[in-house]
Design brief:
Keywords: Signal
Protein name: Extracellular solute-binding protein
Distance between the termini: 33 Å
Organism: Cohnella herbarum
Number of helices: 19
Number of strands: 11
Shape: globular
Helix content: 25-40%
């Protein structure tokens, strides 16, 4: 996906032992397609099926009693592998609920701009997919609280409730988003298509260079880069869509995401004079001077960087866990995928290190104005069933959101990062939280440093001055 996934406020998660996450396959396609399952018999009017609140609908009628129409707006295009899994889940639902008509509209990523006006106009949309953080912030007047519904029995999970069938860290993360959005505390989305930000690397190239273990410290990271260089391999690549991840990855590892958030919002510019910023600048300058960065980073336009990884032109790429699916066609079935967390940066505070990880998920949400909540939630149960989630793992190379489900082979190494992490960091560890300052100054000046146009000392001076100038009078 060429649009970066934004953010979640810092969150200390106590339940990270069973972890996971990863958004698979965010293609750029925006095809809007609808598919409908015709009702086997005339449907009841919406008012006759269910206009009750979520708490009144905790007990779902027997499947054979459900009827009416359910409309689901998906964030995938009809050409993406996720759509095939959705179609299969809808078919299973229809087999058990023949009186329910289901319409699936595949909006692609255009859903982000279409969903709000459609909901506000009163268009029938019973279920929709969104980033839960963005949905709760922007669509809070339209989302249904799901606490009682989540106590229903899940499908294919040995008697577990829907809530208990989802990875604990994910479901609790969704709950944590309700307060900041100004909603009553609770669950307003069911997470699925989880993701995390990690270094993805080519194991074959690491083996060729004689690297026997992934780096966990900055020193080990530099040593790995040198081994790759000596083997004739460009160590690191990235492109314009994901430049911020490297800045935030380093500073977040050193100081934590709260500090990084404060840095890009500092109106005085003085925080840019902190010794850790100069250390960062010196280390980036060092990566450039030692030719650890790909020679193509200056002009790389998405998806050029990730294609370089897929083709074996570079060894490492910092990205989301949707990456293996996005470049599967180029990389081929024999590509040896590995991943590791951003290495620990020295001389930081106790808020950084590998306790923090940028992770999240997409979510399934119900329209609180839906006239058919029972049937809509029953369909959601099929979409997040063990069968559907494991199909996502196989067909879309996605991490399943359900507990006790096998991860796809290209993402198996990601489990180590999740087991280490205790803090949920926002996108880029907060480096993009400065809005226009981040996009217009932080990232471009970083590129000047990474391409050798300015020195480390010049970087610090320029960032301090630019921050003060940008925030003057604000």
């Amino acid at each position: 996906m060429n649009k970066k996934r934004k953010a979640f406020g810092s969150l200390l998660l106590a339940v990270m032992l069973t972890l996971t996450v990863v958004l698979a396959g965010c293609g750029k396609s925006n095809n809007a397609e609808s598919s409908s399952s015709p009702s086997a018999s005339p449907s009841a009017s919406p008012s006759e099926t269910a206009s009750a609140s979520a708490s009144d609908n905790a007990e779902t009628p027997a499947a054979s009693e459900l009827e009416g129409k359910v409309v689901f707006w998906s964030m995938w295009s009809n050409t993406e592998p996720q759509a095939k899994v959705i179609d299969e889940a809808v078919a299973d639902f229809k087999a058990a609920n023949p009186k329910v008509e289901v319409e699936v509209k595949y909006n692609g990523r255009d859903i982000n701009k279409l969903i709000k006006p459609a909901l506000e106009s009163g268009q029938q949309i019973d279920i929709f997919e969104q980033d839960p953080g963005a949905a709760l912030a922007n669509l809070k007047d339209h989302v249904l609280k799901l606490d009682d519904l989540l106590e229903q029995q899940s499908i294919g999970m040995d008697g577990k409730s829907v809530k208990d069938s989802i990875i604990p860290s994910l479901i609790e993360w969704v709950k944590s988003l309700s307060g900041p959005a100004g909603l009553e505390e609770g669950y307003y989305a069911i997470p699925q298509q989880p993701y995390a930000v990690l270094f993805f690397y080519n194991k074959a190239l690491f083996n060729k260079a004689g690297i026997t273990a992934v780096p966990t410290s900055w020193e080990e990271f530099l040593a790995a880069c040198e081994q790759l260089k000596q083997a004739g391999i460009e160590p690191i690549t990235f492109d314009d869509a994901y430049r911020s991840l490297f800045i935030g990855g380093y500073l977040g590892s050193a100081m934590g995401s709260d500090w990084t958030d404060s840095l890009v919002k500092d109106k005085t510019g003085d925080m840019w004079k902190d010794p850790i910023v100069l250390q960062f600048a010196n280390d980036i300058q060092n990566l450039k001077q030692k030719e650890y960065f790909s020679k193509r980073i200056a002009g790389n336009k998405y998806p050029a960087g990730q294609q370089d990884l897929a083709l074996g032109k570079a060894a490492m790429y910092l990205n989301g866990s949707w990456l293996p699916n996005e470049i599967a066609a180029t990389a081929g079935p024999d590509f040896q995928w590995g991943s590791f967390q951003f290495p620990t940066v020295p001389n930081g505070n106790d808020k950084g290190g590998q306790q923090g990880l940028t992770f999240g998920a997409q979510g399934l949400l119900l329209n609180k104005n839906s006239k058919n909540v029972p049937a809509a939630f029953e369909l959601v149960k099929y979409l997040v069933s063990k069968k559907a989630q494991e199909a996502m793992a196989v067909q879309a190379v996605a991490i399943p959101a359900t507990v006790d489900s096998k991860w796809p082979a290209p993402l198996e190494d990601a489990a180590i990062a999740f087991n280490n992490a205790k803090v949920n960091m926002p996108w880029g560890a907060g480096i993009e939280n400065g809005a226009d300052f981040s996009t217009g100054t932080v990232i471009p000046v970083f590129m000047e440093l990474a391409t050798g146009k300015i020195t480390a000392d010049e970087y610090v001076a320029k960032m301090a001055a630019e921050a003060k100038k940008f925030y003057a009078g604000k």
